[in-house]
Amino acid sequence: MNGLIYMDYAATTPLDPRVKEAMEPFLSDAFGNPNSIHFYGRQARKAVDESREMIAHILGCRPGEMIFTSGGTESDNLALRGVAGARKHRGRHIVSSTIEHHAVLHTLEALREEGFEVTLVPVDEDGLVDPEQVADAVREDTILVSIMHANNEIGTIQPIAEIAKLVKEKKTDVLVHTDAVQTVGHLPVRVDQLNVDLLSLSAHKFYGPKGVGALYVRQGTRLVPQLTGGGQEKNRRSGTENVAGIVGMAHALRLSTQEMEQENRRLAALRDRLIDGILGQVPDSRLNGHRTQRLAHNANFSFLGVEGEALLLQLDLHGICASSGSACTSGSLDPSHVLLALGLSREWAIGSLRLTLGRSNDDQQVDQVVKIVPQIVQRLRELTPEAVRLGFS
Amino acid sequence: MNGLIYMDYAATTPLDPRVKEAMEPFLSDAFGNPNSIHFYGRQARKAVDESREMIAHILGCRPGEMIFTSGGTESDNLALRGVAGARKHRGRHIVSSTIEHHAVLHTLEALREEGFEVTLVPVDEDGLVDPEQVADAVREDTILVSIMHANNEIGTIQPIAEIAKLVKEKKTDVLVHTDAVQTVGHLPVRVDQLNVDLLSLSAHKFYGPKGVGALYVRQGTRLVPQLTGGGQEKNRRSGTENVAGIVGMAHALRLSTQEMEQENRRLAALRDRLIDGILGQVPDSRLNGHRTQRLAHNANFSFLGVEGEALLLQLDLHGICASSGSACTSGSLDPSHVLLALGLSREWAIGSLRLTLGRSNDDQQVDQVVKIVPQIVQRLRELTPEAVRLGFS
């Protein structure tokens, strides 16, 4: 890792070398198109089938219930647009939350323009969705509820099983989707236990390759395909299968799952050391997200009177790779919609720092970050006009 | 190639080892998310930008006019659905041809269900679209014309520049899309010379990786995004960029383009040896597609009284990897829609064999195929009841 400290694992993870090794044959001799019936085609088909079985086994579903996609965004789009298209004659109301990933929120926005109605349930100050509130939002014409499993910015884990239970008690035939992009490979996600009908995942969030993901769709669930063509994935997602990517995703999930318990213990300890260290040393700082009901590798802070982007640039100069929120919207100067949804004021929300831990991090790196962040925050507060205005000079 | 003869290059190509090498860093240390602003993010962003410039340079467009996708199917879907969505208030008529890839035909089918009207222009017995007929099909309410550059089954190359010229003379503001999945990397495709507004390509058709493609969209062309989320690709295609795949696609295109002229000369000679050999030795056989205006690597035959699938299985037993038509629909027993569109009877259409050549093929392999195919065809004709019925026993 060339001396840099990478604490942006929620944005993306490096490819596990063991996963890369599993992909190797499919980037060289085993290059067939799984739709060909000859030797190379069958070899590729076998790899895709075995990967599907491996993933389905881990997630507690049937192989035929997994649709391979190009990543989390496509999975979310397929879930939302696919269900909306298939069920628009039953109703046009969708329930979601204010802190969803943009792959969900912007897709709901697009569906709104097509005549769907969307209710966004708010969250409490820790970013928790209240299952009762979700169920209360379900109406006669509700066709779908989509609540993320864990938030990508603040790491808060939602009570999805409870949400699904209450929603279905309220109205049996409402479908429940969860964007589990941040939890698959990090928590023991099982669709049977969560009782969801659709679940999105993305390989590059758990040491797999970029450009590949999947959508679990409960058997019998109608879905309008969003990519039409050769009829792959049982006509639900056309396009030649990304064989190497799919194989990589399966192996990455297998390895992450095997090592999850031990790694999460290690990461949670690092995370707490990071949280305690930073909150203890930076005045006017706060932790965003739930203190305990959060991903083992996520820490998200706000520093009053600091501009998040400036903080990131300074950290980068010190060899620390971090994020202000979601990688997808970095470069934007708007405060995070997630932090605003927690009730943070603009002043607090713009001063955010997300540190997400992973396999390369250790105590030493955490201590280094705990040493440097307070120094940079102090310097920025001394320098920036806003800080002056707010009285931190 | 373990003794097998691979002649299914139109279905997919092996990854060029030089391309794999170019991808390597992005499958290991250079793993960043291009949307992160730290060192790893900037490193990945630079790789994506440079790839975009490389591809744009080769295709004769600006880097900002390339949208990276997950492959040819997504590119076709984005072109058709994106334009249809953006222009539906101007008109709802689309012109295409009867021999398009299913990624176009099935997408047009879906658009039909949404209220669009589609005119499919027929082709002549060689599979050629008549530019005049396309222009004639353009009406006041036509918003888009989509004609493939070369057909994936029969290899016939369409006069796209002429089609675009006539279409735009008929109606200035009609957009022209071409599915160039079979030609990019195989012919000197330049969007400025073709004068198209949208063009689809797929990396795994020119020795690049599976799971990545692109859509050229002329500057100023409105397009409704089909994947919404983090706003990547200038808000036209959200989702974390498949960095390794994009880098691979650029290098594969660069290498294929450099070696194109020489390789095409070599392949055309092999192709002609194959065509002459097989037509010369198999009675009641025919070449499908135009004799000269065809891809250098494509040969497509029909053998009367033979069932294509049975032929493929026999060839596979003899170590020859081929296709009956498109890989995407193999397994289907329906005769190819392309062959039917040429005017072939069902009897001729079901007995098709597509042999598509590439880097691993040589004279010896061609001679081997020319030796084996006639034997198998003869045996099948002797064995199958249909052949008996048709009088070939």
Quick gist of this model?
By secondary structure, chain A is an alpha/beta fold.
Notes on the protein architecture:
2 copies of one chain form a homodimer. Chain A is globular. Helix content of chain A is 42%, strand content 13%. In chain A, α9 packs across α13 (363-383). Chain A has helices at 17-23, 39-59, 72-87, 102-113, 131-137, 160-170, 191-194, 232-235, 243-281, 308-317, 337-341, 346-349, 363-383, 385-390; strands spanning 5-6, 66-69, 93-97, 117-121, 142-146, 175-179, 198-202, 213-217, 285-287, 298-303, 320-321, 352-356. Chain A contains 14 helices and 12 strands. With 393 residues, chain A is an alpha/beta fold. The mean pLDDT of chain A is 95.
The end-to-end span of chain A amounts to 36 Å
Biggest sheet: strand arrangement of chain A: 2-8-7-6-5-3-4
Overall pLDDT score of chain A? 95
H/E element order of chain A: EHHEHEHEHEHEHEEHHEEHEHHEHH
Report the CATH topology name of the largest domain in chain A: Aspartate Aminotransferase, domain 2
Q: How many beta-strand elements of chain A?
A: 12
**Biggest beta-sheet profile of chain A:** 7 strands, mixed
Instruction: Show unreliable segments of chain A.
Output: none
CATH architecture assignment name of the largest domain in chain A: 3-Layer(aba) Sandwich
Q: Any idea what the radius of gyration of chain A is?
A: 22 Å
Strand content of chain A: 5-15%
Helix/strand/pairing category of chain A: alpha/beta
Bin the helical content of chain A.
40-55%
Overall 3D form of chain A: globular
The number of domains of chain A is: 2
CATH class of the largest domain in chain A: Alpha Beta
Separate helix tally of chain A: 14
